[in-house]
Amino acid sequence: MTLTDQSTGIRDGEELDAATIDQYLKAHIPDLTGEPRISQFPGGASNLTYLLEYPNQEFVLRRPPFGHKAKSAHDMGREYRILNQLKAGFPYCPKAYVHCTDESVIGAEFYVMQRVKGIILRSDMPTELNFSAEQTRALCKSFIDKLVDLHNVDYQACGLADLGKPEGYVKRQIEGWSDRYEKALTPDAPTWEPVKAWLREKMPADHSKPGIVHNDYRFDNVILDPSNPMQIIGVLDWELTTIGDPLMDLGNTLAYWIEAADPAPVQLMRRQPSNAPGMLTRQEFVDYYAERSGIQIDNFDFYYTYGLFRLAGIVQQIYYRFFHGQTKDKRFAQFVHMNKLLEQMSLQVIGKSTL
After folding, report:
1. Domain end among 83, 117, 151
2. Which candidate, 146, 142, 145, 131, places its Cα nearest to that of 277?
3. Residue 167: inside a domain, yes or no?
4. How far is CA 297 from CA 198, 264, 293, in A?
5. Whole-number mean pLDDT of the chain?
6. What CA–CA distance (Å, rounded) separates 215 from 20?
7. From CA 12, how far away is CA 47, in angstroms rounded?
8. Number of domains within the chain
9. Rounded CA gap, 120 and 196, in Å?
10. CATH code assigned at 54
11. In terms of domains, do 102 and 190 share one?
12. CB under 8 Å to 170, separation ≥6 — which residues?
């Protein structure tokens, strides 16, 4: 169990009032006894995630970050609803217990969900797992299988047909992220103008079969069974989930996928063990997804470049808060350099593209 994802101390300025939270939860969750011990999960650069440990039960609390927030981001009610309704079609969602809209309780909306205990893979594969290349490859394929399963969920049967508007999704994403990027621009950040122009020019039609788009599907948002680490038992971070083009979601995921052959500066961005022996390359990932989903993908350069640009937009929104002193988290100081590297990667893809 030592590999189970652990919480740590709470970062400066991100503390919660245990007594206030305890009072609220006991009014909304039956048979809750004792006092909570609160700690914080160190991962994540957007919503803040805390562990609430009661003597007989454990919960996870999610709340928005402190400081400047994009208008449509960090919708706690939306994420709470997705967890509860999507679970019927995708059993890897944790159970959500309560959504608090009264910002006077902790200073923001929040929701509380089940804690799924398990292993979360971060930058490197834990040596204790002792996976062979074959086992790693099988886990990687299982990871892709879950993404295909998600994209095939009958979202109407889950009551989520109103979650997003699939028509015009591709265009809205390009325009929306261009707008959000410009609003979060700082004097030291790149403009991305050549990439934005290329994306607008090469924009394909929406895929004919829309699906649930996770929008942040990575290994560090997936929980592995501690007793059988080859098995995925949970998927986290549904903040950005919507309905849209599944290939755009694939592009989002591959934007984070740093493979072993990537140059040293790119390796510095890696947040998951996608470079481990046995892991699929980006091209193998796309080929396996295409095989499993039955979708022909012959223009992946567009979706990958979009994923890199969108990731830069997320990075820049977070860096904007750091640049303007709205967060003290020192991890974000280097995000402008990550942004510049993402732009270079995009320009390389465009330079080699045959689209």
Report:
1. 117
2. 131
3. yes
4. 19, 29, 10
5. 94
6. 33
7. 15
8. 2
9. 34
10. 3.30.200.20
11. no
12. 203, 204, 205, 206, 244, 245, 248
pLDDT (tens digit, 9 = 90+) per residue, 114-152?
999 999 999 999 999 999 999 999 999 999 999 999 999
Domain encompassing residue 135: 120-352
The structure's pTM equals: 0.92
Judged on CB neighbours under 10 Å (0-12, 13-18, 19+), 55 is exposed
Report the pLDDT value the prediction gives residue 184, as an integer from 0 to 100. 97
Tell me the residue type at 171: K
Residue 26 has pLDDT above 70, yes or no: yes
What distances in angstroms separate CA 240 from CA 230, 259, 287, 293, one per listed residue? 27, 25, 25, 22
DSSP H helical segments within the chain, as ranges? 18-28, 76-86, 133-151, 169-183, 193-202, 246-255, 264-267, 282-293, 300-323, 335-352
Please state, as a whole number, how many other Cβ atoms lie within 10 Å of the Cβ of residue 208.
Answer: 8
Q: How many residues does the chain have?
A: 355
Q: What phi and psi values does residue 119 have, to the nearest 5 degrees?
A: -95, 130
